[in-house]
Amino acid sequence: MIQRLLGMTAALAVSNVFFHAGDALAMSLRAETMAGRLGAIALAVGIMVAGMVGSRIWFPRPFFHGYLVATGLFLSFDIIMLHWIFQLHRLSSGPEANVLEPIFVLLGIGFLIYGVRSERAKVRVPGVAP
Question: Given a cut of 50, is residue 23 above it in pLDDT?
Answer without folding.
Answer: no
